[in-house]
Design goal:
Distance between the termini: 31 Å
Number of domains: 1
CATH architecture: Orthogonal Bundle
Radius of gyration: 21 Å
Structural class: alpha+beta
CATH class: Mainly Alpha
Helix content: 40-55%
CATH superfamily: Cytochrome P450
Strand order of the largest sheet: 1-2-10-7-3
Shape: globular
Strand content: 5-15%
Number of helices: 17
Largest sheet: 5 strands, mixed
């Protein structure tokens, strides 16, 4: 979506816009969120198209409260707004990590999180550098380069490796995960959103099922994320095949649909603020806060869903038990009550309490790996590239869940000797 800034024109919107994927590609969500934060911080959205109404919370404090308080706001009925009726039961409830509440959430999460400790994540740095080299190498000839399309394979390469997935499936899996959150986008939709989601799920689940059955048939044990899921015990029992497939899907989706767009935002920020990146080139200590500001600025996961467990009073409104509640991270990360100059990209920003990875029990399990990936990408970008220039109009993804780029044409000017510098082989 457009990363727009004030002064905003007067906001006119229909409730259905908050569900409309196209609105996030061509509209002005940041202006809408600013309007809601100021005037209706607890907004009751009724699409009036047969879909269930839901609450919209846009202030930082409210977003953080909902994400932290699983006893009042449950994840068990789903965590994303989509075309499916919000009143329908969730078939993945208590089976898939995102669609659980503690203590079951902890049971599913902790074994996987042990494979993503800071030490384990740090061990992936060399592999990540090789992946970044492969991604950037075609751009070093100075020709126009579609960064957004190239970045789609960035998280897939290291997540595919960590999960032990066959390399020949990676590109298709990256496309399929995008289809699940951009089911209305002309480049990913099959014409009917529900059909698009069904096909993407069916094909992804079949790939995971085949991988699981192959490992079972060959008695193949592996020290990877799928191996960890296969060996887990929850309430004294191993995961069923369906539970295994659903949690493989959750891990892949979480990595694939957000990280590419933070990467594209990082490159766009370098084009728009070359002085900040030149400062980071000279002083590596500035690179970590610059990555954190990129995450705040991008907020690639736009929203999360919860369901009220009991009646809650908020901003003189009553959120009734059972009602869907959406919290908008992209809005919270521009909240004037928390961030000074929220519409200014400031790579030296300190105390950056952004919510790009969420907060509370569902804090992104791959946050450490995603952050390292962005830090490595920034390092290599600064090592290889002198400057970035836009080379055409960006095209934004049509999705109400992910704030991202579909096409980002840029021209990268390599640093002296970058073309001749030896490149590491593929990961």
């Amino acid at each position: 979506m457009r990363l727009s800034r004030p002064p905003f024109a007067p906001v006119e919107f229909k409730d259905v816009d908050l569900l409309d994927s196209a609105y996030y590609a061509t509209g002005d969500p940041h202006a809408l969120w600013a309007h809601l934060r100021q005037n209706e911080p607890a907004y009751y959205c009724d699409p009036a198209d047969g879909r269930e109404p839901f609450w919209v919370l846009t202030r930082y404090e409210d977003v953080a409260r909902v994400l932290r308080d699983h006893r009042t706001f449950s994840s068990r009925r789903g965590t994303m707004l989509c075309i499916i009726d919000l009143s329908m039961p969730d078939f993945a409830s208590d089976e898939m990590m995102p669609d659980t509440d503690p203590p079951r959430h902890r049971q599913l999460r902790e074994p996987v999180s042990r494979a993503l400790t800071p030490r384990a994540v740090a061990s992936q740095e060399d592999a990540l550098r090789r992946i970044v080299h492969e991604l950037l190498r075609p751009a070093l000839d100075g020709e126009v380069f579609d960064l957004a399309q190239a970045a789609l394979m960035f998280p897939m390469a290291f997540t595919g490796t960590l999960m032990g997935l066959p390399r020949e499936h990676w590109r298709r899996m990256a496309e399929l995960t995008t289809m699940t959150i951009a089911y209305d986008d002309p480049d990913y939709s099959l014409g009917d959103p529900k059909q698009t989601i069904r096909l993407a799920h069916h094909e992804l689940f079949d790939l995971f099922r085949a991988e699981a059955r192959d490992r079972l048939a060959t008695n193949r044990e592996a020290d990877d994320l799928i191996g960890i899921l296969r060996s887990m015990n929850v309430d004294g029992e191993r995961l069923t095949e369906q539970q295994l497939i659903l949690n493989c899907y959750a891990l892949l989706l979480g990595a694939n649909v957000t990280t590419p767009h933070a990467t594209s935002t990082l490159v766009m920020a370098m084009a728009e603020h070359p002085e900040q990146f030149e400062a980071a080139r000279k002083d590596p200590e500035l690179r970590r806060p610059l990555v954190q500001e990129t995450l705040r600025w991008a907020s690639p996961a736009s929203h999360f869903m919860r369901y009220a467990v009991r009646d809650v009073q908020l901003h003189s409104r009553t959120l009734r038990a059972g009602e869907p509640v959406s919290v908008w991270l992209g809005s919270a990360n521009r909240d004037e009550r928390v961030f000074e100059r929220p519409y200014e990209f400031d790579g030296t920003r300190t105390g950056n309490r952004h919510l790009a990875f969420g907060v509370g029990p569902h804090y992104c399990i791959g946050a450490g790996l995603a952050t390292l990936g962005l830090e490595v990408f920034l390092d290599e970008l600064l090592n290889l590239v002198e400057r970035v220039e836009p080379a055409g109009e960006p095209v934004h993804l049509a999705s109400n869940f992910v704030a991202g780029y579909k096409h980002l044409p840029v021209r990268l000017t390599p640093r002296a000797g970058a073309r001749r510098r030896p490149m590491a082989g593929p990961a």
